[in-house]
Batch of 2 targets.
Target 1
Amino acid sequence: MLYIKCPYCGLRAQKEFSYGGDATVKRPNINEEVSSEEWDNFVYMRKSPRGKHVELWQHIAGCRQWIKVQRDTATHEIFQTAKVTEEIR
Amino acid sequence: MSQPFRLNKEGLINRNKKISFTFNGKKLFGYEGDTIASALIANGIHLVGRSFKYHRPRGFFGAGVEEPNAKLQVEFNGHSEPNVNATEMELVEGLSATSQNCWPSVNFDVGAINNFLKMFFPAGFYYKTFMWPKSFWYKIYEPFIRKAAGLGVASIEKDKERYEHKFEYCDLLVTGSGPSGLASAYAAAKNGAKVILAEDKPRFGGTLLTDDVSIDNLSGKDWAEKIITELKSMPNVTVKNRSQVFGYYDHNMLVMFERVSDHLETKSKFTPRQRLWYIRAKETILSTGSIERPIVFGNNDTPGIFLSAAAKEYMKVYGVLVGKKPLIFTNNDSAYETALEFKKNNVEPIILDTREEHSSELIDEAKSKGIDIRFSHGVIVANGYKKVKSAKIGKLNKDKNSFEKIETVDCDCICVSGFWTPSVHLASQSGNKLKYEEKIDAFIPDKKKQHETSVGAANGSFTLEESLKHGFENGSNLSAKITETKTEISIPNVNEKKYGAHDKFWCMPLPKNENPKRFVDFQNDVSVSDIEIALREGYRSIEHVKRYTTLGMATDQGRTSNLNGLQLVSNIENKIVPEVGHTTFRPPFTPITIGTIVGREVGMEYMPTRKTPMHEWHEKNNAVFVDAGAWKRPRYYKQGNETLFEASKREAKNVRENVGICDVTTLGKIDIKGPDAAEFLNRVYTNAWMKLPVGKARYGLMLREDGIVMDDGTTTRISENHYHMTTTTAQAANVLSHLEYYLQIVWPELNVNVVSTTEQWAGAAIAGPKSRDMLSKLYPDLDVSNDALPFMGYKEAEFFGVPSRIFRISFSGELAYEINVKSDHGLFMWEKMMEVGKEFGNQPYGTEALSTLRIEMGHVAGPELDGRTIPSDVSLNGLVSKKKDFIGKNSLGREAFNVERRQKIVGLIPIDRKSSIPEGSHIVQDQNAKLPNPKLGHVSSSCWSVENNNPFSLAIMKDGKNMIGKKFFAVSPLKNKSIEVEVISSHYVDPEGKRVRS
Ligand SMILES: [Zn+2]
């Protein structure tokens, strides 16, 4: 069971979180024209990297905030967590 | 009754408390502090089971977790448990143990014929022998293998015991209370760290209990007792015996299995049997010790053959002799301690040492005590079927591949030692790649992967001095980093015997023309020849050899067999052991009960039960409940002998004719507040929301970004910047997360807050042509006329003195209202409605009637919004705005969503107007067509239309709208039904929607 540091609540067990997919995907702006290729990339195309990956998790059984987690998909090592408004580099 | 093999004084058992038990029906006794194994050996019983494949007689081999053979069916405390390790299970009054894997008895076992047919059971026999003919598999081979290969019998009774889970956090977890573990825990505790010390056995101290050593002029045992006593008195230390740390998971989480009360004769009502601990440790000390490695020889599985350290433990801890005429067979010095212990108890051992004559502290001591030592000697084959009677021993030549002299000596036990294997299981589970240490011919932990530190024998240090030193140092340094306190501890003076070098020799050769079985893995019956066959047949990877031969795959995880297996492969392949590599260690380290894994989450505690405030009333009024997620909802209210079908028909009919009330508390409710709330709803829903006035509700449709319908419901504008959203019961949690996702991540610039209020409001729907009459009685001071409270209107008013919200919305398609009051007033509201509604013929209705009402109206719900439908599929394209952008809009233009003959919702009625159409039926043109019969659609929801008094279904069908009037077949192979149906509109009742507006 992973041990995830919520930027708002501190270290909490994985049980309290739900997974939310790739955090690097950016939704095209609302009310703006978007090519179908760009839209399809946003809806469907995801990388499945082995190694470092920035993901979204939601602290559903805690503060209910969505957060960013940089995790190694092979070893589960978590390098960094951040608020969604912050950058992970 | 005498115990012929019990010593008079030795041991740590309580001789003042006799415990009686039975073994295979025979009444025996032991003492408090015995295991089943030590008590049986004290009684001279060695034959306890039959082996897995060949049904060979088997006895005890070890004295703890390393035991491969002695697995018993044990009955105690009113339950029966299979595969109990006799060397671990403590004796408790009234316990009854029986042998497994033998029929009709352990003394005469029919399956032992396999032993004489062993040419049929070579390596890979599962793969080869039973493959042909195929038709034999299910009826002959499989039942036979299951019966013959089965170990114990699992109980089919409900487990009445209580099991618990516990979550714990600590600075330092120490796994094992041998010298290095005690030293680590002590040093860390002195630094003020929060420490948990876990010991698998009932007694603390590990090898200190059996080794002839002294620490600061105390015996090992007394020193351990002193340290444990001090640790127990410290508030920052938790000390647990009978607790096995069996798994090392991610982010330094370890899981421990505590045997809380299996050893107790009586216990209080709520004492759990076993407890599972989830321990999140900042640092972990792995002081798991080592396990003695056997030497492989002929018939080495005969009862009476023990690991040498186990024989010593039976003497020193239990006061039991494993035999009175022992042969000690060793390649190293540690077995000399066992020999000396026998000698001390007036038993004369013979030592067979594979090494050439040399001298060391221990050898000299044994010599001085007059023990018969024979160098360059080993056991070739043990004689005796159910118990060792003698052994053929041989003097090895210089190359150790043949014999200079062979003779037979009498003996009643053989104690074997092939040096020591560190227990690296937990380190390996933590992700640590192991490295091969040539000095000890075994794997030890390499670079840390998590926060684990192996100390003592688990790290390959086999001297007490080194173990203590590493223990104190690591315990102190690791904890000081956390507590920032460092207390100086002087490392105690140690007195121990120096060991000489071991012999790199683990498998006795066989003389010409002799071919006894030489077992490597006892539990799975894997012999030297099986490994040879696997290699001859081309298996090279150790992982493949393991699977083909099943070496190390039994419940003992190859604790005594892995290294000998590797050494064999390495010898045959002419590779060094590290090149062969090792197989993966996986949790659990020892078998644990399913009950412990499940804990308290059984039956009603499996998940929380959500009840509405009106639940008690439903119960009293014969509601039959249905699970809706965690909620309990009334499915129907049973009157007399009614069936579900009759009751739901009555309830639905009453709504169509009079009025009914339905508990709708379970609908998801979300409060939405903020100046940008309207803009937010406008983006979330497919329809327009900017112009909804205060005091009005609107039906809304929500998509996922891929254009698929996510949920639907009504949202009401309570005040300028305040909206009340409802969702379906099933999607409530998902919709809230969805809204939070967009507000927090995608559009943080919108000033909106959302919060779930599902639990805060109790809701009741009042539906039917007489609902307005009833409403006016419920709110005598309120104008509820069609003009004052029109369809989709909203009002706040007092309900008999209680604040309430009135929504004029309808799911049933009838004139209907929904009343919300605070949850605390829910039952009051419901009872008032029942009271006031009497004169209008009001009846409560459940989810089954609710479904009937919505299906015949053609209102879609979960079965239609199944994650595959877009708005136009379910006739909701009228709600999709062309003018504005919203979540999922861009996807609606996708080609596949706009093809001709796209699926559409339709209604179906059976031609005979009688046969109900099973949900899930496929719609086909020709019921007799060849398979696979082309599928034109599927039936999503079915009901008995109370309006038209015949069955009616909703279906999602290819090009549905153009199929209206045509005839097809609805086939359900599952129910073995084929019904001829006619396609009609999905709006079967009141297609213009006049009633809701009346
Ligand atoms: Zn949080």
Target 2
Amino acid sequence: MLAEILHTLPQVLIDGLALGAIYAIVALGYTMVYGILELINFAHGEIFMTGAFIGTAILITLTGLGWIAVMPALLALLLVLVITSVLTGFIGMGIERIAYRPLRKAPKLITLITAIGVSFLLQDLVRFITEVKRGNYILTGPSMFTDRVEVKTSSVLSVFNDASFKESFIIVFVVAAIMMITLDFFINKTKWGTAMRAVAQDRDTSALMGVNVNKVIGLVFFLGSALGGATGVLFAIQYGTIDPYIGFILGLKAFTAAVLGGIGNIRGAMFGGILLGVLEMFASANLTLMTNGVFGAEYKDVFAFAILILVLLFKPEGIFGKVVMEKV
Amino acid sequence: MHILELRDIHAFYGGIQALKGVNLYVDKGEIVTLIGSNGAGKSTTLKTISGQVKPKQGNIFLNGKDITSALPHETAVSGVAQVPEGRRIFPRLTVKENLEMGAFSVKNKKVVAERMEKVFHYFPRIKERLSQRGGTMSGGEQQMLAMGRALMSGPNVLMLDEPSMGLAPIIVEQIFSIIKELNESGMTILLVEQNAYQALQIANRGYVIQTGEILMSGQSSVLLRDDQIKEAYLA
Ligand SMILES: Nc1ncnc2c1ncn2[C@@H]1O[C@H](COP(=O)(O)OP(=O)(O)OP(=O)(O)O)[C@@H](O)[C@H]1O
Ligand SMILES: [Mg+2]
């Protein structure tokens, strides 16, 4: 059995990294908002979905205008990513301003229900607009970066099979890595990033330092949503077809990844996302084998979530969630 | 014109009235202390000044400008720094980051660096601990960091809420001598204390607050000799 698991390992890792990178960035949005407001922003999965639709719509429009044909594909992608993330960034900020801020002092449960409401609203809005424009709410964008690349992993270790990936995998991975590294730098090394961490730790005292707390919270929503929207674009490019409901399950999993890494912890969210993606792909490739055919690949989510529960049983604060000693 | 003035301040927490018409002023270059026992309304007074609590009635003036309805971050930017009760260091920021947060509204990096040197001058121990997390420092170190952080904004008025709370006598001694030193270099200070004797020792003037009302005020030397105060606060 081990040999068979090893055969597929390179492919599992590649597919797992692509999926995990997507989980990781969406998880960042959950963890940032939770860190600063202790709010599970359920609408975040829908921001990701909205990003996928906005990005695809722009790509379809550009194709219609004939621009895609004359533009380097990477440039087109960059353009789409920038426009989409700015738009979803503002949508996220708007949601905070309109739906969450008035409830800042209300019980957390009220805000949570509002967030679920915003989720439905975004789903239906995207579905409505897409149906009006296209007659169908399932959308397939122009195919980009679909050439397959072979990796001769068998020459590294004879027990490995060769693996392959679409070119888009590299795009997903590189863009995701750039976004994560940039965000990490921003949060840990810049003045506004430090202010974000300060507000997360002590809102009142941050205000005493001259920090406009509402501005910082708005910034957190902008950044999280911009990254989430851009990730939606990556998802659309990697997996081709999207519908208004992709944000729900993916959001749930990304949230899980955030909890796995330790909610509120930025690097934890990145790690949790990658881990969950790899686990899921591992299960998808090997469950049938490991259970003698009792459970098929469709049980991959059960496997991934079982791991989550196990981790949380032994480490309830998540893998990177530290219990910081605080003297008062 | 007073640098800071409170006129007839009434403040509430829900239905409970915490301040019942507080009048108080601080002149430039003074140390003024506000003393009183637990729950008297000392912290609430500072919080109305910094904008954390909105008074229901009355006005607050900073350099003659009405700042009653200013938000906390706006008041901070206008030059009032508050060292809150219990220090409120950012526990998971490093000592250096804590100081940098104090200078959040200062754009000029050179000014920030100069101020940090000045903080090191007053609190040499902070300099040795720049990369340590704030939350892992001792109580006395945290108090020094909280004061240093407040100084980073280059305030016109420094408000301190019970800086001696929970500290060993020798540290309290140090803190008070630094407060005095700061004042001698020109800093205007509003000092809230339960430690009435030591506070009055370094202050020019004092106010005694009890259940939300100013009971008495005057020169520190006079208050120190007052029988009623001796009995209630200096025993
Ligand atoms: N957040 C709050 N909600 C309700 N009541 C409060 C709140 N903060 C203070 N109070 C009440 O207001 C009154 C004044 O409190 P305040 O904190 O100003 O007292 P203090 O003089 O600073 O006391 P201490 O020396 O114990 O710090 C007290 O009766 C207190 O119980
Ligand atoms: Mg107090």
